[in-house]
Amino acid sequence: MHIKPNNKAIASSKDQFDFEIRWHPFILNPSAPTEGVVKEKFYMEKYGPQSLRIEARTAEVFRSLGLDYDVKGLTGNSLEGHRIIDYAGRQALDKQHALVEEICLGYFTKGKYIGDREFLLEAAKKVGIEGAEEFLNDPKNGLQEVYADLEKYSGSISGVPFYVINGKRKLSGSQQPEVFVRAFQDAAKEN
């Protein structure tokens, strides 16, 4: 779910294309516990030996961006994160994007848990999301919107991040910025 490569590709292509970024939920493991499980163990159980290859490829992408990929910490139910991301998008798409970046940096490079309410509130405050604590205090807030988006968008997704460009071009998993730039160019040719 890390977005730095996408940001780098967008920055290098802003003079050629117009961008509007919207984030939609995808819950990789709907049955994951809210209290979280150790990432390394979860990935090994879910993907088997392939998890080592996925981890190595992801770490390579992170290194190319000057970041250290961290599989320490917990993973688990991401519903709270999706609720606050949806809420941020109702305030402004740029705030939503900044929040997703902040959550991803914490989760992928600092061992933060995406289901930790305090971490989510800290990230929301950092990017200027107003009323985040009040919003999350009611567990029903945003659920209808998140579930509607899940039904609408996640049918063919098998991994994250998952990008759809101009409603057609699709990219899944961590990618180098050059891959995004080529996808932008190909999508522009198709329109």
From TrEMBL:
Pfam families: DSBA. It comes from the Eukaryota. InterPro entries: DSBA-like_thioredoxin_dom, Thioredoxin-like_sf. GO terms for molecular function: oxidoreductase activity. Residues 15-184 form the DSBA-like thioredoxin domain. This is DSBA-like thioredoxin domain-containing protein.
